[in-house]
User: Fold these one by one.
Assistant:
Number 1:
Amino acid sequence: MVTCKPETDYRIEAVVSCTLEAPMEDGSAGLRIVVREWQGDGKREGSSSWWRSRGILRSTEPTVVRLFLRTPKGMRRMHLSIGVEGAAGTASIREVRCVELLQPDLVSHPMAIPPPAHAMPAPRVARSACVCSVTAADRVLTEFLRASLGSRRVRTVDPREFDPSSLSADALFLPDKALPPALGTLSRLMRVAEERIVIVSLPALASVSNGALSLRRVEQPDDPIHAKVVYADHATRGFALHDVFPYAWTEKQPGSFVQRQFRKNRTLAPFCKRHGLVTLLTSMCDQDATSDRPIAFFRATKGGGLYVLDIEPVEDRGSTRGEPCLAGHLLLAILGHVQPGLGQFTVPSPKTEALREMMRDTQTRFAPFVVCDSGLPAEELTDQWITIGAQEESLGLPLRPRPAIVVRTGLAPGDAEAVYGAYYWFKQLVRMPPHTCPYAETLVSRFRLMWQPCAGPWAWADGADRNAPREDSPPGLPEEVDMGEAAALIDLVSRPRHRVRVVVSADRGGVHRRMEQWLPRLLESFPPANVFVPHVPAGASFADRDALQWGWLRWPVRVEVEEHGEEEGIRQRFRAGGATLIRIEVPGSPADFVGHSIHRTGLAATVLEQVIGLVYGLIAVNRTGQTVQFDGVPPVQPGQAVVLDDQAPLLRQEASWAG
């Protein structure tokens, strides 16, 4: 039992290792942390709040299991336990920590609409790299680059043997605290950066600044240390301005976080102005004296650019929340390899009312994003629906009959991949010039799009599943909304598996056949993102930490048909009305959502886009930086879309071949 304060944020973590076996590897079994509210009489209340970390089955190396929670009003004691549930084998628990946080620093801006990737092209895409370090052969950085660029395209060199004149790599990494002797001055460093991407550590730049730059090493034992995005360019794709994300590493003191930053002295600004250095990231710590300090600079050049940042956050082992993923994303974006698509860095709203207020605020910003609810205060709402386009209603004209495509998310508490993935897709439908959605008008003129963000109660605790109550029958359609003829009901959910699964039932329009023929091809040619993160192999369980490895993500796709499903409530109503029922399952887990939020929301949004497109006929958007060649259509340029209705010759021809 641990004494705690009500309405206070805590970080709870344990260092563990285990080798376990379980009948089901879906996160419901394994080694996990469980936190329960402890009532004042010393008895655990069955209906009180509780949180559980995602179960781990295999982790031979010590792993930090970490979750964050905010205690409810009135909670003064918690029962904290860690152990094995539903599995058998060996487990070791080395350390357990419960740390009160001053305030959570993680911040995202879901309503922001960053420019698409093709609007901010990288000046150079690095195909090869050189790591110049005393320990280059043994660094995680070297393994990271070899896995991302290819082992033959990455070379290592001792700083004492480095010769700039023989350098042919597209990117040069200088992670040590001092520059190589051959690059012993700032002018030499700048010359090398004119022809390629150069990434240099903070101490190395300070060592050649003639005292203009002063460094501070910050270590916090309680709150995590973060970075704040203060400049938007290709290096920060996937983030919005002023997003705050984890950017630190651990050293000798258990449970502490370390970061280096430049002091804001009187010589800092003149030095940066003189050498064309722009601040990319600033610090976010638990004190004003160590916050808002530069931790990353860049200087644009024709051949690439000079980037000043420490790469230790990429090399850190992190925790089950996947903190190094975001540092790795930043590093590969600098190298020109990241195309985040529709995905954004996301810190989910902790409460249902905050989500519903966000929907209302989105309508205020984008008029075609129409919120349908009772108008009550957000905390009193029982349901909320989103539609796209309300010109006819606002003019008092009769509605044109259009089949409805209805999307439901939030069917499970804290399913952030589904809720925010759907939000980003609906939001991009209403984005303003110059980067408008290339197919929105066509799709909305054919179908009435409706979305229920939270089909069940919402609850979010970073890194944990929470016991939010489930409703046996989610709310139905609002009576005041005229659906017209139902075309499809789409349930978007996440599962702790590395795969995409689409299940079609009650198919009366040939949608299943079209999905089976086209969806895998669309995801291959028009991918959701170009992402390099630690992940498990295709079909493997997220509970297997030993299976995690850095690599480029590829999502295996399965399209299945369900002939006879037992439907209840709204699904039964749609089936009776002749609609196609579709369930989309995408990879997801609350244990590490924030660290993986950019690519997981992008995947959910893109799969939803392509599935709805296949209900229409075929829709796909090129969000990469290259021209896409797709059989049967002209070359698709960046930012352009393929839009075919279900009577298009290509689709009819393919259908006849399949028949």
Note: The longest strand covers residues 9-21.
Number 2:
Amino acid sequence: MTTALLALLLATPQASAPGMTVMAWQLEQPFGGIPQLVQGQVPNAYFVTPSFPLTGPFKTDDAPVAQNFYAEVTTRLQVDRAATYDFEVRTTSLVRMALAGETMLNTTDGTFRRETGVWRGQYRLPVGRTNLKAFIMHNEGDFSLDIRWKRTDETEYRALAPELLTTDPGQTFVVNPGPKRATLGAPTTRPGDRRPLTAVHPSFAREDIRGEDFRPAVGGMVFLPDGRLAVCTWDERGAVYLLSDLDKPGRAKAHLFAEGLGEPLGIAYWRGDLYVTQKGEITRLRDTNGDDRADEYDVVASGWGVSPNYHEFTFNLLPFQGSFYISSSVPLRGGHTNYTPSQKPGEPAYSTPEGPGNLYKIDPATGQWEAVARGLRTPNGMNLGVDGQMFVADNQGSWLPASPLYHIRPGARYLHQEQPFGDADESSVAVWFPHGEIGNSPAQMILIPDGLYRGQMLIGDVTHGGLKRLQLEKVNGQYQGAVYRHSQGLEAGINRLVWGPDGALYAGGIGSNGNWNHLGHKFGLERLRPTGQVPFEMLEVGVRQGGFQVQFTHPLSPGMEDLLGKIKAKSWRYEATIAYGGPKVDEKNLPITQTRLSPDRRTLWLDIEGLQAGTVVYLHLGDLKGPNDEFLWSPEVWYTLQRLPGEIKETPRRREMFAEPPAGAQILIGKGGQGDLRPLRPGVAKWPTVGDALVVQHDPSADIGGSDHVSGQPHGDALIHVEWLSPPGGRVETQTNGNSGLKLMSRYEIQIMNAPGIVDLAQPAAKFNEAGSIYRQTAPAFNPSYGAGVWQSYDIWFTAPRWEGGRKVANARATVYWNGVLVHRDVEITAKTGLSEEEAPGLAPLLLQDHQTEAEGGVMFRNVWLLPTPNSKGIRPPLT
């Protein structure tokens, strides 16, 4: 516990710091009044200064902020005598001054004017500290602002002495170059159109779950097997709470399980124990006497370098394939990386060379650790994402012109340099979050396992707030893709996300001093319950040869063709330098030469000139409408175009074919996991139930088939619907990657496994022994997989083999739809597949296979049903 207690002492914040905080935003244009900033934009200049007068220009790593800027000055004024005070403001700028949140003086109101450049107001102040804030719009000329004061019974104004002014301590000066957006009066666009959304996405309903006395700054969340939610908090207490009664009306009960932890920013439940990431340590928490309080705090791993610097965090805790993964951030000084002289050539220029900016793989049995990826700055968000791959979100700063999402590859070095010089490779970024537009401080991402958006990810943001949606594709082995606006209206900036056993998404908020928070909020915990509603919006945007393909959630409304010509596209690139953040480079408008709409009005093709690899492409779809004249939820998308594809084989659009079983269907797995499915062998336990699903429990007595389950009734010709989820992990080379299978008549296997995942646009071929194949006979025509950890479906029209006098006269045949895409069209199955039962006349049961696996859990099945002789009932495959 020594490391944890030391970290806790280092993390305990001061109550205040001397001075006043100044933030200034360079605007696109001058304003005749004090404007309102579009939310989510960080300042160009940000600093603490002792007192007034305040003069410009304000220095930045980019161009100085001198004219056409909006600024805010924030401080707390100490008053030792309650009285009415007169304030005098001297400036040629537009200024509104507020005390305790009330406007005390406004230079746009002539009643406060005393002479040219001088305004006066009055306010009664109590003893103690009162918040003082100045809102400033400066257009032309040299900027200066002086605020002086006196009691009304005094004759001379005097300066606000520095010893009377205090501000937040420990601020990280998050800035970004380039012009920012503001409006005078009400916003001129809809929410989500060049400004943040104002509401939660219609696919979710927000629910309050925390009690008023429970205010967690959430550093990590994980559900326990008994349904309780474990939450660790990034605060002075450094605690772990267990939340119960989440399934009951009203607020959950929070029970303190552990405390005294140093900046806990990751938590996991693994093999019966609860683990927490602290600054420089992974700790196992155990309750040995059954009182529901941790009484053993065991160090599992430590030793990577950690200095007292306030910004050297240890983030995340991800168990995967028998190891733990964590990440660490670099030390800062005034927001910039705190480099120190290196002792030896090639060594990182930090005081703790083996600690900052790495991703670590840790053996929980021995505590041994190794850095498996380097070049990170503030990798606060990490998780398994699409294809069961590991992703991490970093935060803008030195060497990071905007915040990036990386796909983690062992041995990789990412953008942040370990020396104050270097040559960063921007192509390592999967998705850029343009600063102030769609992200500022991205945090944890989470895979969407079900519903229309399955196979995509959601990601929180601490300072931009809310959730964003990520949709990736792959070109020549590299992930790249799009980020969309998704949700706002949550109670704090979102730091951690976890799916609950109830199918709801739990969102944990956090915040700190300065502008590292969302709208000043520093804690939060809420539940987002799926509603099943789908707004009109872009579902997928994919790069194609010479342009982009846009898929919508609903058909485009009739009469929209004229608006297609108003769609806008532009691009830019980023250059990684030692400067804090960076501007858009080579920004230009891209001509859209042609638009084409599919017959069902759900897909739009945009032919665009001038697309270049290594850029961000921004599309604005304007005022397009869907059904019922509904505008797009957001008309904007940002696509990180690292590689351009050549000519590709297009995969048809995925869709759901059967919402409910047809009349006469035999239910094998239905609601609550109930149905006519049973173990094949006597004495074998039925697979366990999770919600409406059954989870394959491997019988180690056999590599394959030990706990196979079969339908209660045999079948011949049939329509079979199966929904399945193959978890991440395992190895495709040994077929242990979430392997199972569906065997028609116990003999003809349609393969199930977690590979392949997102199709590579440059290498789209599927294989004859992987998912979607008729095992080792016929590969699927397409790969419409959603990837590991996501619910998928097969719809199979099966024709049984025909026999005469004990001799087979016609082979079995199958038409297979995978996620609604036709991948086998009346394909002949010439013989049994793999280690299946030998072919023979008569009917045989449907079989769901148990197979040896190294994945993170067993394959899951739900909503499995079988309809005998579908053709006789008029239910035929929609081959057209």
Note: Residues 257 and 428 are 41 Å apart (CA to CA).
Number 3:
Amino acid sequence: MSHIKIVDGNSLLFRSFYAMYRPGVPLMSNKDGIPTNAIFIFHKFMKKLKDDLNEGDRLIVCFDTGKKTFRSKLLDQYKQQRKPIEPELKVQIPISREMLDAMNISHCELEGYEADDLAGSLAKYAEKLGDKVDLYTSDKDYFQLISPNISVNFLRKGLSEVQCYTMDNFHELFGINPCQITDYKGLVGDSSDNFKGIPGIGEKTAIKLLNTYNDLDEIIQAMKSQKTKTALNIVEHEEDGQFCKKLAEIVLNLPVEEYYNSSMVKDYDNDALLSFYSKYSFNSFANELKKKMEVRLFDIERVDSLTQDAEKEKIIEISSLKEVLNPEVFVFDYDQKNYHRANIKNLFVGSSDKKIYTLPADKIKDDLYLKEFFENSSNTYSAYDNKALIVILSRYQIDVKAKVEFDLLLVTYLIDTNVEDSPSAVLDSYDYSYGDNLNIYCTICSAILNLKNSIIKKLEVLDELKLYKEVELPLSSVLASMEIEGVPLNVEAIDNYGKSIHRKMDAIKEEIMSYSNEEINLNSPRQVGHFLYEVLNIPKPDKKGSTANDMLLKIVDEHPVVSLLINYRKYAKLTSSYTDTLPSQVFSDGKIHAMFNQALTTTGRLSMSEPNLQNISIRDEEGKLIRKCFFYPDDENLFLSFDYSQIELRILAHVTGDQNLIDVFNSGEDIHASTASKIFGIPLKDVSHQQRAIAKTVNFSIVYGTTPYGLADKLKISPAEAKTIIEAFYNTFPGIRTFEEKVKKEVNEKEFIKTMLKRRRYLKDIHSSNHLLRAFSERAAINAVIQGSAADLIKVAMINTYKALLPYKTKMILQIHDELIFKVPKEEIEIIKPIIKNAMESAMNLSIPLQVEGEEGKTWYDAK
């Protein structure tokens, strides 16, 4: 199935502009003074969309023409209520087309119609051809287009927060079906488009009616036999409702074949892009592109990539691996990033004589030679992403015992953590060419065959070969086993918990609404801001009248509704991120099989996605209670959690060599109480709870890099007081300041810093003309040594623990920052605990002892 992404250009450009627009504040502009803030953000978004696509996929941007449309003729006041476009935005609209041309991205517009008509017609045309369609917009009219193969990615908060609406989740998230959107608009209207719908009908009433009746016609017919105020109102304004419904209907039959044919993803025109970047002073984009073109960082021995024709000649279709003499490289071709769910297309196999073979997906399951190859521990192989390879093979009941010796994704990540974890970005980093008509995974296979030896030599030069061979490469197999094992989630339990959260939200919303005479969308910052600062006359926390949570905390004592709103948002976050969405992530085995991202973060830490279980909050009880829904359905297995105690502070003591800090840990004293005793100059026994809390904040702030202003904000004290506390801390532990100055000097000289295991973090902004970026880079360098070394340690611990558990049934199933979580049969619990404790505490030899604490329980919640 091909994939097409269709972008609502005007919608995204507007959001890009207002993401960085503050009245009276100078905007980003080029050397000629032309505003470029919207283009800057729009470019970043479009680049990410394009880079995530595969060969054969499509991308197109739809624009309004800026002229009158057929809707304008139907309704003279159509969109006239909208305030005029800011002049600084208006000048950037034609530049957006210029940008897309430079990026080799197709765009279209059609006089008499709006962008949504073009997008809708394109979506339906592509769907008929069998394409998977993703629409990107902030216009709710697009919801009417949702179907089994059409999804709408709805953008909030500039372009940083995206909610994907599909046939599976739309009713749950919005309350009605996609086919009822135009009926909904007929009832409530759309103030942004200047059509009012039926007076007195708000969002809740409309949704209630559409859950009772199928459409607007049925509603009107039913209301004619009722005498309520709502019924009489609907009947009286029947024509208004029908007219507004018609205005909201997207045209689906425009002639778009030519636009569709032009939308195939094409290579960037680097020269055109550099010219565009220069014209609009996008220096960071230009520098990044130049580095890729020059291949300055990698500086590997050049091996010419094969031409497309030569590649095609060398691709040989096979029905079994037995047809390949000396197979070396294995690369799967699949249609989405989540390889647990992806449709597998082919397996590309590279041989020692640099020939490339393709094994169709329907041949893999029955290929005994493939199974025999990977289940033989004496065999070796190379891969693009070993973790994904092992997981996909497990879907074919192949248990990989062969040894991986090369992983292109991981070596690229070690050479430069700034390279994105996508096939196209990896190939670009080596300047390895791939074309429109050649499968990108086939090109990856070719690149591994041609570049492997040169890349390994580069790792040797960078002194990262040991880190690669002893940590990252074996860890990929460990993570694969964890993903395959999965984590049990009881759908009934989380559904019940979600319902209880929704009841709390409803009660809070009802209490908030008691202060208002009209319906308020609590998810709308504009409506909430109007309610707080104009209806209730609450003093604004800033000039803008922000409704962000950190701003609301400043005015929480001004009115009871503020704390209610904060709590409502907390619960809304729990439902949208977890209780409403996690059930859809459960596989047929009753488990979540999330992905660990091994080549994503710049610090070396692992992250998770689809879903991100690392983000389940433990700061408040409601968040922690989600963990109660994770348990094994039988009574034979328990959750066991082991967590490092103050790992980053212990690493800080080790890398700084500060004797005072080392002595605190070696004495077994409470580190935070001891710090408080020293910086406040009082006996340890006299340290108050408040002083310990301050010291704890200071300890972790130093680890993460802080300023007097940052610490002042956390402790709610003046910057002068914060500065005094920071100075007292450094006077108490002088080795820390010496260490920090050494790191700053090193990163200024080399533009990178190393962790304890020689992992590199590049910080190119260390020589920026912007002093804020320079200061940030210095703090990031210090943080990288501490956090990066902690990441190295937990990875070593995972490998050691995995090996120690091989003789047992116990399985490692999760890594949450400094915590490892296990599935343990009850009969093994007392045997296993000392084994895990020893493996984790002996992961690295530090100048102070490592400590882990463990606890078991029926649920994940009980094990912590």
Note: Residues 77-81, 295-313 have pLDDT under 50 and may be disordered.
